[in-house]
Amino acid sequence: MKGQGGFEHNNQSLRVVEELEQKYPGFPGLNLSWETREGLVKHFTSYDHPSKHKGFDAKNSPLEAQVANLADEITYYSHDLDDGLDAGLLDEAELNRHVRVWRAAARRVKREHGNLPDESRRYFIIRCLIDGQVRDVVETTECAIARAGVQSADDVRLHPRALVQYSAPRRLLNQEMRKYLYRNLYFSREVDEANTRAVRMLEELFNYYLAHPNEIGDTSRRRMKQVGLHRAVCDYIAGMTDRYALQEHRRIFGGQS
To answer: Does any domain span residue 46?
Structure first.
């Protein structure tokens, strides 16, 4: 979409709820509150830095959206630890040696539950990690709100920093875990090959639909005159599930996706 308005997934989420969903006869979108749409636009994590959007100019989002930001990050890394262990790309012994939050959680589980079967042990370690992060965020945030003296949602928006946050020690520990995951999981050969394959498939689908716009579905075709061919194709692909994208790629190009 370079040169065609670009693509930023927070803005795409807003397009979905304001324009693409057609649930009411009199207007497009889902008729969500301004605050909910603000939270979508300003969704911000360590790996997700949204661009500014007209109409949502204040620096910070409200507390509810700030909670969603950190909840997303906590869930993201916890699930990736689980998936990495299941896939054999991560090793518990190595995590114990190099990731302090994992080591502390593993010791707590061993102390409280003794020797557990592998699957149960991993589940409880990750559960313990999540619990520790949530407790840290709740306690740190409570103190930050009291120090800031904010009295309204607008005070929160205008505050120079997010108020829902980790403590400084926990932030450093999370950075250590994040670096380990990038080094040993996200940038591993197996994951990199899958990502490269996904990028190729999306590019091939995009170019195919540009050349065959009659195949992008009735709703997307009707929007072409209003938003242009590139944006209509972009909206169509962005709305696909992973499974449907794989099915479409096999249908069009054959072979293994």
So the answer is: no
pLDDT tens readout for residues 145-196? 999 999 999 999 999 999 999 999 999 999 999 999 999 999 999 999 999 9
Residue 49, pLDDT > 70, answer no
User: Does residue 117 belong to any structural domain of this protein?
Assistant: yes
45 φ/ψ angles, rounded to the nearest 5 degrees? -140, 180
R_g of the chain computed on alpha carbons: 22
* Domain that includes residue 152, residue range: 63-187
Which of 29-43, 136-150, 169-183 is least confident? Answer: 29-43
CB 40, CB 14: distance < 8 Å? yes
Place of tokens 């009707």: 222
Which pTM was predicted?
0.83
For residue 78, give every residue at least 6 positions away whose Cβ sits within 8 Å of its Cβ, in sequence order, or none. 126, 129, 130
Band the pLDDT of 70: cuts 50, 70, 90.
very high
Q: In total, how many domains does the chain have?
A: 1
**Cα pseudo-dihedral 23, 25, 30, 35, rounded to 10:** -170
| SS3 state of residue 162 | coil
Compute the distance between CA of residue 132 and CA of residue 122 in angstroms, rounded to an integer.
Answer: 15
Q: DSSP letter at 99? A: -
Please tell me the distance from the alpha carbon of residue 238 to that of residue 169, in angstroms, as a whole number.
38
Mapped onto helix, strand or coil, the DSSP state of residue 4 is coil
Q: Is residue 220 part of a domain?
A: no
Q: Is 253 helix (H, G, I), strand (E, B) or coil?
A: helix
Distance CA 58, CA 56 (A): 6
Three-class secondary structure of residue 29 per DSSP: strand
CA dist., res. 246 & res. 243, Å (int): 5
User: For residue 67, is it within any domain?
Assistant: yes
